[in-house]
Amino acid sequence: MSLVCNSSRVQFKNPMDHLTSFQSFFDACIGTWVTERTYHYLSHQEVERSHTEFTIESISTDLKTKVLSDNQYPMPENLASLPGFHLKFDTVSETGEEVSQQLNMLFVPQDFEADALKGHYLRDRAYEEAKSIVANFRFDLAHRELLMTTYYTQVVSVDSITLINPQLRIRKILNYRRPEADQPLQEVVLVGFGVEQKAS
After folding, report:
1. What are the Cα distances from residue 41, in Å, to 37, 38, 189, 193?
2. Between 3 and 26, the higher pLDDT residue
3. Which fold has domain 15-198?
4. Which of 94, 134, 155, 162 has the fewest other C-beta atoms within 10 Å?
């Protein structure tokens, strides 16, 4: 696994502690979850609620290889130990609209900080667009928060998952209108909040 550590900028005791905490986060996420979400569409001042049931399962090394291949991503070392998952979800909005999707994902750590782990988040199918995609992630060790930032064609999605305990996660989604190159994220078009509870 290729890990880039800028020791001149920050010192950390043991990079393996970062990886252990990261893996523990995902171990707790394996299983079936029930989610109640509220979406605020700021572009047309609409609020929508939805109910989602989704299942997270670990994937084989072969499927991890497929995710890498779909994204034309270089093969990392120790692929078998990288967190990779299959996600399946079914969503029903309060208006009765139904959406179902399945995808495979892989997390490739790239950089250690004193209190965080950063890297790439690969999917063989994106949420907003039906194609494979590479995004960025940052995992906050102290708060057990996974922050994922994806640049789509029209929007930039900043998706946060905070693990409160093994049975409860809090989800926050911010979609920004994609700015011109090298410009900051400013115009929010969607805000989503969710409470996710693991099914017994």
Report:
1. 13, 10, 6, 12
2. 26
3. Lipocalin (2.40.128)
4. 94
